[in-house]
Amino acid sequence: xxxxxxxxxxxxxxxxxxxxxxxxxxxxxxxxxxxxxxxxxxxxxxxxxxxxxxxxxxxxxxxxxxxxxxxxxxxxxxxxxxxxxxxxxxxxxxxxxxxxxxxxxxxxxxxxxxxxxxxxxxxxxxxxxxx
Length: 131
Hints:
Elements: H1 3-29, E1 45-51, E2 58-65, E3 71-74, E4 86-89, H2 94-130
Helix pairs in contact: 1-2
């Protein structure tokens, strides 16, 4: 494996973790999105990671969507409430989303550190060659 392979593989990890961060932030931003009971709730997005096609690194294999049923909440004063006073909220667990946010952030940081170390190694090798 060369330095360039390490940068490429870490780059796939950066892309995956960025997409994971995007999905989690979208889920957190919509945790309080309310809809009427005759509409689907916001569906949380979950990134599915798979091995890259060439076997070097990872890629986004797809996005899984959460439950469209959501959860019914009694809010008779809400303008979107049905005749019985219920509205629909997404079924998103904030504790789980915050855990996923931390994991995605740490994975992104780890891959960024690999890219930095590989770049520094490459620059050091160029300096040796110039001496």
